[in-house]
Amino acid sequence: SQQGEEDPQALSIQEGENATMNCSYKTSINNLQWYRQNSGRGLVHLILIRSNEREKHSGRLRVTLDTSKKSSSLLITASRAADTASYFCATGGGNKLTFGTGTQLKVEL
Amino acid sequence: NAGVTQTPKFQVLKTGQSMTLQCAQDMNHEYMSWYRQDPGMGLRLIHYSVGAGITDQGEVPNGYNVSRSTTEDFPLRLLSAAPSQTSVYFCASSYIRQGARNEQFFGPGTRLTVL
């Protein structure tokens, strides 16, 4: 069964706009990770946020975590066409990760 | 470093055939895993290994075998292929360190079709 569920399933925006996608999970976590998958490729790690952190930044990425609501959000600011991809949240103990179903982001010129 | 490599990239099998998907990593990672990705279902863990000689089942292990004779290699065997095993298969690896981030590195995937 999936631990994480992303919302929305699909998102289409214009270049330069911000993109926000959400992840909800079911059980307690030590950390939550976000990955990106370009079409036909493997997943690439973007950012990890620990359970004792509320917000984390990496370049144009901003991740928040609300453990009381068992949810996380990924914000991509000033989106570019190259950000077009699927985005997955992942949770788990140690190295054994459980992935959500993903959000498909399309950034149009 | 080549990272995580997978072969083949594409494969078509007939029902009942067997085959092995290869995965290798050159980062000296202790942890290796196999996922399958199906439309609308995200990635599901098939098998994983925390070191040479140690393997364990994930969420969907039926119909698959693994072994880990070396740190570098983690092959996935389909014993008797079924159409339900049509999927994209990803191998991933990571370090195991106390308190460290367990970022996983993924291979490019193998697209398998079972007729």
Summarize this, please?
With about 110 residues, chain A is mostly beta strands. Chain A has no helices and 11 strands.
Topology readout:
The complex is a heterodimer of chains A (109) and B (115).
Chain A: E1 4-7, E2 10-14, E3 19-25, E4 31-37, E5 43-50, E6 55-58, E7 61-66, E8 71-76, E9 85-93, E10 96-99, E11 103-108
Parallel strand pairs in A: 2-11
Antiparallel strand pairs in A: 1-3, 3-8, 4-5, 4-9, 6-7, 7-8, 9-10, 9-11
Chain B: E1 4-7, E2 10-13, E3 19-25, E4 31-37, E5 43-51, E6 54-57, E7 64-66, E8 76-78, E9 87-94, E10 105-106, E11 110-114
Parallel strand pairs in B: 2-11
Antiparallel strand pairs in B: 1-3, 3-8, 4-5, 4-9, 5-6, 7-8, 9-10, 9-11
Describe this structure as you would to a colleague.
- With 109 residues, chain A is an all-beta fold.
- Helices cover 0% and strands 61% of the residues of chain A.
- Chain A contains no helices and 11 strands.
- Chain A has strands at residues 4-7, 10-14, 19-25, 31-37, 43-50, 55-58, 61-66, 71-76, 85-93, 96-99, 103-108.
- In chain A, strands 2, 4, 5, 9, 10 and 11 form a 6-stranded mixed beta sheet that branches. In chain A, strands 1-3-8-7-6 form a 5-stranded antiparallel beta sheet, with no helix packed on it.
- In chain A, a hairpin with a 2-residue loop joins β9 (85-93) and β10 (96-99).
- Chain A is globular and about 40 Å long.
- The N and C termini of chain A lie far apart (37 Å).
- Chain B is mostly beta strands and 115 residues long.
- In chain B, 0% of the residues lie in helices and 49% in strands.
- Chain B contains no helices and 11 strands.
- The radius of gyration of chain B is 14 Å and the shape is globular.
- The mean pLDDT of chain B is 93.
- The chains are: A mainly beta (109), B mainly beta (115).
- Chain A binds chain B through residues 1-2, 31, 33, 40-45, 48, 88, 94-102, and chain B through 4, 31, 33, 35, 40-45, 48, 50, 58-59, 90, 92, 94, 96, 101-109.
